[in-house]
Amino acid sequence: MLRLLTTRLPLAFDGTPPAAVLAYDPPSDTDADPYAHLADTVRPCLEAGDVVLAVLDERTAEPMHARLLAVRSALETTRLVIHTTSLPPLGAAMLVRALAELDATGALSPTVLASGVARLERTVVSAAWLKSVAKLQHPAPPLKLHARSYLPKAGFAAVIDDQPRVVRHRGAGHALPLPDLTPAEDWRVVVGTGLGDLGMVEHTLASKAGGAEIVRVPSRRSSATWWGTERVVEIACMPRSLASLTHVVLGDRPVAGCAWCSDDVATAVCPLCRAAQPVASPTSGAAS
After folding, report:
1. Alpha carbons 236 and 192: distance in angstroms, whole number
2. How would you classify residue 222: left for phi > 0, otherwise alpha for psi between -120 and 50, otherwise beta?
3. Alpha-carbon distance 146 to 159, whole Å?
4. Distance of CA 100 to CAs 63, 67, 110, 139, 192, Å?
5. Which H helix or E strand runs over 145?
6. pLDDT tens digit string along 181-202?
7. Shared domain check, 224 and 144
8. To which H or E segment does residue 32 belong?
């Protein structure tokens, strides 16, 4: 089984997340040892033979990244894998959901899923309606939009896909500039609620995502921190076909046992032991 460790992310599930998702929060007790607490969280999974994949926001990965490396070393395991993502919180949560659903099918081994997480990440489209872009870092807004943040009735749309952009949003009757989600029934759209004015994205959901599976989940403080404003409505979109996502995970590289640790992977570098994999011969298909 693939166990997914997340920290301070919303959960993109319309209900109780599966046991495969470990929503981890560091201990609040200042006297508690965070390394021991983290080790106690992952050790039972590793001892059961599972692979633990930690998905961290690259902006706030430290000190969690350092703790995970220390725990990985102390437990003498290669089956604790760390992936840092540049996705916003809800987009990262969508990635975690997709990994959990793919693992549940049993079509791919946990090690193959861990090796394909970067490919899967590229299928996520993130967007947000923002009351202000004064503290927004990515995508970086132009200077004139910074100035508009201080005007009454200001509103902005940010989209992170192949062409990240920030534009002025003219009101609830106008859709955010999402790419075309076609066919809509092949997409899942998750919307974070509880921070900004949800009405500002309803037109988007009707015109751009009509027919898609729409899931509304409570926002977390991490979304306000990431987008730089308390008044934000975050959206994450991802294809929902598990067959299509399986193809994305595999990419163009065949599944093969790692030359060093023997676990099945589908990448040029094993995510578990970090060993480079031999390149197949273009004529015979044999590793060279």
Report:
1. 9
2. alpha
3. 16
4. 25, 24, 10, 28, 20
5. helix 143-148
6. 999 999 999 999 999 999 999 9
7. yes
8. none
CATH of the domain at 154: 3.30.1180.10
| Cβ-proximal residues to 283 (8 Å cutoff; 6+ apart), any chain | none
CB 189 within 8 A of CB 215: yes
- Residue 216: domain span: 125-237
Beta strands in 40-168 (DSSP E): 51-57, 80-85, 125-130, 156-160, 165-168
DSSP assignment letter at 288: -
Whether the model pTM is above 0.85: yes
Bin 251: left if φ > 0, else alpha if -120 < ψ < 50, else beta: left
Q: How far apart are CA 192 and CA 177, in angstroms?
A: 18
CA–CA distance, 158 with 228 (Å, rounded to integer): 12
54 with 132, same domain: the answer is no
SS3 198: coil
State how far the Cα of 82 lies from the Cα of 67, in Å rounded to an integer.
11
Give buried/exposed letters for 96-130 (b at 16+ CB in 10 A, else e).
bbbbbbbbeeeebbbbbbbbbbebbbebbbbbbbb
Structurally, the chain folds into a number of domains equal to 2
**Which of 161, 155, 160 has the alpha carbon at shortest distance from 133?**
155
Residues 170 and 224 in one domain: yes
Tokens 């996705």, residue? 87
Q: What is the pLDDT of residues 32-47, one digit of tens each?
A: 899 999 999 999 999 9
